[in-house]
């Protein structure tokens, strides 16, 4: 089997998992708030990470170095994920995913400040195209901005911060250590945020499978994406990931009667083109 086909199969798993998490999050919103969803998702993640660390004997990787970066990284991810879960409950799923695709472009724009990387002409062009794509998707002059569009666009910024801080951590920390603090710190944040009013909802018997789905889908999605990137170059993986947009658009249409908005696809195409041109340019530079 060719590497491209293997990567495509892993990406199918990622696309299904990301889509399942979006649907699960929307369905849970009638019973749990976003903080509670994140709390239960993180609890499930802790159980998985601890089990895997015990099974593979990687406990020794866990240490308290770089705790400041760990805390900031997980605060960024916790904030971004909460904004994402809120967005999927108030605007069409396709619109959320289209705006989420701007995450790599925010990495381009913010990496000179956080990672000290150079802002090249192609990176700047990709950032401009991403901004144009956001305007096409949001269409503030036609549809008017709302809380869903603002939170969906904002979550991409926090996801970009998460990616860059994760990259910094990988220079000195193992994957088990990163995943351990990813789950445990966000469980703490979730308990604090969900319980600040003294009332944490317990999932009903009907909601419990959805809580498990959301927790499992998040871990599986990133596992599949990581494997795809390990097998094939980003120039192959990114176009496959773009399939997530039409898939979630069809899911939204079938499950929630959401209309297929042509401008969402046009804006997403502009965002994707900016992403792809930058990745292609970086690949050519390295070769």
Q: What spatial form do the alpha-carbon principal axes imply?
A: globular
N-to-C terminal Cα separation, in Å?
A: 25 Å
Low-confidence parts = none
Taking the sheet with the most strands, its summary is: none
Structural class: mainly alpha
Strand content: under 5%
Description of the molecule:
By secondary structure, the protein is an all-alpha fold. The protein has one domain (3-286). Helices cover 79% and strands 0% of the residues. It is built from twelve helices and no strands. Helix 1 (3-28) runs parallel beside helix 10 (234-241). The longest helix has 26 residues, at 3-28. It is globular.
List the topology elements.
Layout: H1 3-28, H2 34-56, H3 67-90, H4 93-100, H5 103-114, H6 121-138, H7 147-170, H8 175-195, H9 208-231, H10 234-241, H11 244-256, H12 262-286
Which key terms come to mind for this protein?
287 residues; mainly alpha; globular
Please summarize what this structure is.
This protein is mainly α and 287 residues long.
